[in-house]
Amino acid sequence: MSADVRFVAIGDSFTEGVGDELPDGTPRGWADLVAQGWADGLGRPIEYANLAIRGRLAWPIVDGQLEAALALRPTHLSFNGGGNDMLRPRTPLDRIADAFDQVLRRCDEEGVKMILLSGADPTAGLPLGPMIRRRGDQLSAVVERRLGGRTDVVRALNWPDRELALGPFWAPDRLHMNARGHHRVAARVLTELGMDPDPAWWDLPAEDTQAGERLRGAAYYREHVGPWIRRRVTRTSSGDNRVAKFADWQRITPRGMPASS
């Protein structure tokens, strides 16, 4: 029997799951957690694909992932983008917001329900944090105005979550969430979908998040900021030569149910 929920996720490192790595190094992240929580909540299998690739700007996400995602004929499509654009002060906010418009327009045309996410706010731990936060606030306002009264769009807005912006929810690079942060985002998405997530997901104990060592001062800049600057100078991306984690449907069964059911 085919699943009646077919959920595909597109985006950048936030949706790929960077910062929430499994023991083998594979990123998990909020979208994987949502897929499992959705199947558990329904008590039946769903289909799940994840085309997100780290380092992508908003429009390259749309240009490189949207049509491939829609070709899978999903029932639901999640989109987040703009986080990498926020680090580039010259990128016009309206141009980023246009990408959200395009995703919504194509979802409307294909009869797909859009799940809109805003990323969490990393700026408390970043250089130039106030500037990035200001641009993030402005982009959130622009996108909200564009959506207007579209109550049919599922909104999981993480940028305004002040608790999620705190250090214990973030990986050592301060730019990506750790497992604790990804679980909190997954709980928000599932709630907006009408599911009841595990209450513990909203605030996992810090010792369960594999937070890792947090570098400070010159060590932090050498380990995390320097490589980002080098990629900017050389016009390369952390996502170069990477492919989608799940480019085709994965059957996600409720925990405790045989995979063949």
Can you describe this structure?
By secondary structure, the chain is an alpha/beta fold. The chain has a single domain (6-211), classed as Rossmann fold, CATH 3.40.50. The chain is 40% helix and 12% strand. It contains eight helices and six strands; from the N terminus they run βααβαβααβαβααβ. Strands 5-4-3-1-2-6 form a six-stranded mixed β-sheet. Strand 4 (113-118), helix 6 and strand 5 (154-157) form a beta-alpha-beta unit. The radius of gyration is 18 Å and the shape is globular. Mean pLDDT is 88; it is low at 208-212.
Strand order of the largest sheet: 5-4-3-1-2-6
Query: Strand count, sense and closure of the main sheet?
Result: 6 strands, mixed
Mean pLDDT: 88
User: What's the multimeric state?
Assistant: single chain
Please bin the fraction of helical residues. 25-40%
Tell me the CATH topology.
Rossmann fold
List the uncertain runs. 208-212
* Proportion of residues in extended strands: 5-15%
CATH level 1 class label? Alpha Beta
**Global structural class:** alpha/beta
In angstroms, what separates the terminal alpha carbons?
9 Å
Rg:
18 Å
Number of helices: 8
Series of H and E elements: EHHEHEHHEHEHHE
Total of domains: 1
Task: Provide the CATH architecture.
Answer: 3-Layer(aba) Sandwich
* Basic shape: globular
Q: What is the CATH H-level superfamily?
A: SGNH hydrolase
> Based on DSSP secondary structure assignment, what is the total number of beta strands?
6
